Amino acid sequence: MEVVIVPDAKAGGELIAEAMAALLRRKPDALLGVATGSTPLPVYEALARKVRAGEVDASRARVCQLDEYVGLPAGHPESYRATVLREVVEPLGLPEASFMGPDGSAEDLPAACEGYDRALAEAGGVDLQLLGIGTDGHIGFNEPCSSLASRTRIKTLTQQTRVDNARFFDGDLEQVPHHVITQGIGTILDARHLVLLATGEGKAEAVAQTVEGPLSALVPASALQLHRHATVVVDEAAASKLKLADYFRHTYANKPSWQGL
Questions:
Q1: CA within 20 to 30 Å of 255's CA: 15, 36, 174, 236, which one?
Q2: Is pLDDT above 60 for 261?
């Protein structure tokens, strides 16, 4: 896979935003898969700046969600749908109809999961899926030992994940849902281009295992090794445990093959 080492999170955001902009110039109605959390915010901010500056027209772009809490009421500000609308859809000036996501409040959740996979396929598939990574190597909510062939499904959050996410619920752990719907690893691998962004020393071991370790369900992100076009963008801190860091610096030099294979 391509590994691009950048100076800091802002540089990583700019690089990936330009990749998204280049995709939209080639394919104005591209389907962009987005992730939540603090790591991808520089990407969305940089892309929104490009839209405001007239560098790219995103008016026909479509956006799809990686995961969603189960059981939060419609419109809850900490639902991932509300988060994506607030951080991605609105800043890009897109209509809400351009957004796709799983229904975490559906009465028949397994059917909702199957329906979301089907909707992604019927939309022509995800053109570029942006991913973050957990310190244990998880992507989406595919925790260690998730099936590498898994499809969109319901997952139980670990206690540590709920504790980590309590900060978004005023620190009240009781408000944090116990379950989520997440795209499975197999679903994620269906995207045409996978772009993983990781920053900070805390992600260094997970990045090293993802890129240089064996393919293993213990490190779900290692499934990116199976993909025909996966790009990993890391800052110097997150790259600190890569044995081949110098090779990656020389080979890609901030110029990954964004246009795919």
A1: 36
A2: no
Structural domain span for residue 191: 2-252
Domain membership of residue 58 (yes or no) is: yes
Give the sheet arrangement for strand 179-182, strand by strand: 67-69, 179-182, 153-156
Q: Which DSSP letter does residue 66 get? A: S
Active site residue 227: no
pLDDT for the residue 252? 73
Residue 218 lies in a domain: yes
| pLDDT tens string 222-259 | 999 999 999 999 999 999 999 999 999 988 765 666 55
Is 259 contained in some domain? no
Position 1, amino acid = M
- Residue 258 lies inside a defined structural domain of this protein: no
Given 138, 190, 193, 229, the catalytic residue: 138
The domain tally of the chain equals: 1
Catalytic one of 2, 18, 78, 136: 136
Residue pair 6/12 in contact (Cβ under 8 Å)? The answer is yes
CATH number of the domain enclosing 72: 3.40.50.1360
pTM, 2 dp: 0.94
Residue 114 among the catalytic residues? no
143 among known catalytic residues: yes
Mean pLDDT value across the chain: 94
Catalytic residue among 68, 103, 127, 143: 143
